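Hi again,

Forgot to attach this to my earlier email, sorry! This is the prediction with sodium ion bound. I've pasted everything inline since the attachment limit keeps bouncing my files.
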Amino acid sequence: YKGEHNDKRGALIVLEGLDRCGKTTQCSRLVSFLEGRGLSVESWRFPDRNTDIGGMISSYLANGSKLDDQTVHLLFCANRWEKRSLMENKLRNGTTLIVDRYSYSGVSFSAAKGLDIQWCKAPENGLIAPDLVVFLEISPEEASRRGGYGTERYEQLEFQRNVAKHYQILQDSTWKVVDACLPPESVEKQIQELALESIQSCQNKPLSAL
Ligand code: DGP
Ligand code: NA
Ligand code: NA
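Structure tokens for the complex follow:
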């Protein structure tokens, strides 16, 4: 006998957006909400700074190490690849993953530096495709006013404008755009509805690849 729970796969739900769009807060609120519904759910984020590769990324972001743009791009990507099989196991075992950033950050941030977008996309191919991408939309100017940027490498207005342009290029019909400037409770509610719908409807779809 295989319980109903084990027959259902989890959903891969990604939140994307510029730095300071509120993603991290919304991710944890969504996880609490889904847990409250008795669902099996985990909070993930990329970069995952807890691996060796993640440590290299973290030091790069803190401006502590100089690496060329291509090398950094491949490190971020490798950081997703090193979590791929665990991700697949969790999803197949019925756990929904709420992921703070994924390949879209990878491509947008690197292409914003001037790297060719197709070159950036290539190594992401084969990673698990999300069931839902929630894009928290905010203007770079508005984001920069939110408590100010920290000291990390990418947290600069001009660069974030460029990232925003590339997010726009990547956006497709599977993305759900949520206005990040609405009151937080309203943003939260919209994301909850999108997530529940995605968890429901992914049951009929096999896992697929980017
Ligand atoms: P976070 O921990 O979410 O604040 O992300 C750290 C910074 O790294 C943030 O400015 C976004 C950026 N970032 C996230 N993923 C990638 C990626 O795959 N490639 C590049 N180049 N930057 C990324
Ligand atoms: Na950040
Ligand atoms: Na964040």
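The chain has ten helices and five strands. Confidence is low (pLDDT under 50) at residues 1-5.

That should be everything now.

G.
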